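Lecture notes, unit on binding sites. The following record was shown on slide 14. It pairs a sequence with manganese (II) ion.
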Amino acid sequence: KVDAHSLQITAAEALLRWHHPQRGMVSPTLFIPLAERHGLIGAIGNWVIDDATRQAAAWRALGLRMRVAINISAYQMRQDDLVDRLQAALARHQLQPGRFTCEITESVAMEDTQVTQRSFERLRRAGLHVSIDDFGVGQASLSYLRRLPAAELKIDASFVHDLGVTGAGGNDARAIVDAVVKLAHALGLRVVAEGVETERQRDLLVQLGCDELQGFLFAKPMNAVQLAVWAQLADERPPPQAVHFRDSLFLDTQPAEIAPPEAPAAPPPRGRRQ
Ligand code: MN
């Protein structure tokens, strides 16, 4: 994710990929439903939490200051220990919860079940950065959206895709993005557009007031090592790929993410009365 105006890198979203030794690349649209059916999705979700926090700490050690986002599944939102697990992983790597994003799809976020709501409340209390993902294709209740402890709203890629087309489809998409941006800003949420592939889409999104952009126009999915190299070379790239890490989003992060507990303030030196 990059800031729409400064093109400063703000975050990286962790995406699952499976390189099978014989089959090659197995699509997540294939293996996620399989994992769900065979009861493996819980273990995969836990692995994502552990590995994304580990990687976030490794990138931070390289000086790459950005949020790391993971996608939280409906299954995980129904687990009682989700937030405990996240907090333990963050503590293990000395990461501040606000630097870690949990993306939760609109359809899961709108589940009005007690257990999902309890997870939301715990995420809020733990100080994690919550993002409502794939917004606009589910059935959002606006009064309910207002109560969610989210900081960010991601417009579904299908609207971003349609933005650039000419004719009624394009006009509709522009009207929807316009409305979503206004709604989100009225609720104090930052708006991220994902699936940005063309300069025309980018220009329209900036014009409509999107705060952050994500998509192939800036970077394709890459592995952790590639990302570190890509980020460190970012300043040398011509526009529109000229994203950068200068003027970090997190001006207060150096050198340690978590400041040691403050020692009680020493009493002010008393001037010796003469
Ligand atoms: Mn996502």
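Take-home: The longest strand covers residues 129-135.
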